[in-house]
Amino acid sequence: MSDLLVAYGLDDRVATLYSHESSLLTGLVSEERTDDPDARLALGRVVRVERTRCLAATAAGLCLVEPDGVISRRAGLAAPPVSGDWVVLAAQPGSDPAVVGILPRRSELSRRAPGDRADPRQVLVANIDVLAIAVPLDRPFSASRVERTLVLAWESRALPLLVLTKADLAEDVEQVATAAETIALGVDVIVTSGVTGVGADELLTIVAGGTLAFIGPSGSGKSTLVNTIVGSEVQRTGDVRWLDSRGRHTTTSRDLVPIPGGGVLLDTPGLRGLGLLDAEAGMATTFADIEELASQCRFSDCGHASEPGCAVAAAIGAGDLDRRRLDNYQKMVRELAHEKRRAGQASYAERRQLRARFIAMHREAGPTRLDERRQSRG
Question: What global pTM score does this model have?
Answer without folding.
Answer: 0.79
